[in-house]
Structure formats: C-alpha cells, structure tokens
Design a protein that fits this description.
The protein is of the alpha+beta class. The chain is built from eight helices and 13 strands. It folds into two domains: 85 residues; 109 residues, no CATH class. The chain is 41% helix and 25% strand. The termini are far apart.
Length: 247
C-alpha cells in the first residue's frame, strides 16, 4: 500500500464517522424537540378489561363477587386516585388505561372484608381476593355498625367500629386492625370523602392498613379547631362524638 493510500485511510474513517453522526443528529434533535406528552406515549399503555373482586368462603369453597372501587397508587406522593367503579361482573366504569409498571389497588363496597391480594401491577385482567371477618369467632356483635353503614350514618358507624376495635385489641389484634380499617373508612366518609380517595390511603409500612392521608389529618384538625377540640388529627372520643352528632 502506497504512502498516499495510508494517509487516506484514517481520513476515510473519520469521514465515515462524521457521516454517521450527521445522519443521527437530525433524528436525535427531532426526538429532543418532541413534546413531553409524545414521549409518554412510548410507555406501554394497558387497557384493563376486567377487575374481579371475589370474597372467598373457606367453609363452602365457593366465592362471591363483590362490587367495589379501583385506585391508582401514586408512589411518590403516597396518594391514591379513584379511577373506576367496579360492579359484580368485573367491568370497570369508566374504562381504565394504565402503564404496565403502575400499581393498582381495590376496595370492596362491603365492611369488614380483608384484601388478601394487596396491590397489583397494571394488566388486562385483575383479580383481588377478599376474606370476610368471622363475626362469631370474635364474640362481638356487629349488628349496629353494619346497620349504621347501610343507612349512611357514618359518624355512628365510625364510633361503633372504634369501640369494637378497642375491645378486640387485647384478645385478637388482627381482627382489631380490620375493624379499625372500617372505622377509618367510615370516619373519612363522615368527613365527606365518599370515594375514599382524598382522606385515606393504604400504608405499605403497616401491612397496607387504612390510615388517614395528610389531607385527612388536616381535615380532622380543621373540624377539631372549629369545635374547640384538641387538634389531634385522630378519631378520638371527642371527635367521634362530633361526627356522630353531624349524621
């Protein structure tokens, strides 16, 4: 190979690389100039077709379909967003689209049921399994709180569930937690959060127990302030009395 040829080879390689860069640069610039919404479209979206909420019955081996609500969990803000209602056929209304990595959770429209499934990643067909708290085994009468819930007297329901939860703590703490979830839900509804997506969240650090969100705590404190009560941000005895009087 001549000296001239040896000198030209590096130049050709350099020109080749430059040509590739020249070809790629317009495409890169075009991507950079795309609006944020366009880039989000690249993320795979999934349409949820069915959301089955089933209550298991260990005594019969059969399952019962439940109605409920579907929520999207926002990890960064520890909030959840109500995105659909679900009937007993499993049809979400309105239709739901979510990213494949997003977490969804469900609540049954029935008191004193335990969600055994926990949050699930978004996919076409979701299934959440619930278990009903065994009333007789706990030796507690749930007639009153269930009646209050059915009639929309959420303050009275929250008070009744709180009383039962307190009595169960020393003997059956797991049952006490489940009943306290019902008290928190009723308390949130008494404050005006009918869909349970403003004032309550499921706390993963407490095995997904239902707790008041920051907004819920502030709402409780505002109520307590207005009534001249100590601002605890909790469902204490005095606050429950106020909620009951507001039914």
């Amino acid at each position: 190979m001549g000296n001239r040829e040896k000198m030209m080879n590096p130049l050709r390689r350099l020109l080749g690389v430059t040509s590739v860069i020249a070809l790629l640069t317009p495409a890169h610039n075009a991507m950079a100039q795309q609006p944020a919404g366009h880039m989000e479209d690249v993320i795979k979206k999934v349409r949820v077709l069915t959301v089955l909420l089933e209550q298991a019955d260990d005594s019969t081996g059969k399952t019962q379909r439940l109605a409920g609500r579907l929520y999207k969990r926002h990890t960064a803000s520890a909030k959840r967003e109500h995105i659909a209602d679900v009937d007993v056929t499993g049809k979400p209304e309105p239709h739901v689209e979510c990213a494949s990595g997003e977490k969804l959770e469900a609540e049954a429209r029935k008191d004193l049921v335990i969600n055994r499934t926990g949050p699930q990643f978004c996919k076409e067909n979701l299934k959440f399994v619930f278990e009903l708290l065994r009333f007789g085994a706990e030796g507690v009468d749930f007639t009153n709180p269930l009646r209050y819930s059915a009639s929309g007297k959420w303050g009275a329901a929250a008070t009744s569930y709180s009383d039962i939860s307190f009595r169960l703590r020393s003997t059956t703490p797991i049952a006490a937690y489940i009943v306290q979830d019902a008290a928190i839900a009723a308390g949130a509804k008494a404050l005006g959060d009918d869909k349970l997506d403003l004032f309550v969240v499921r706390d993963p650090s407490q095995r997904y127990r239902l707790v008041f969100s920051e907004e819920g705590v502030q709402q409780l404190k505002q109520l307590q302030r207005n009534k001249g009560l100590k601002e605890t941000g909790m469902l204490d005895t005095a606050t429950l009395r106020v909620l009951r009087e507001n039914d």
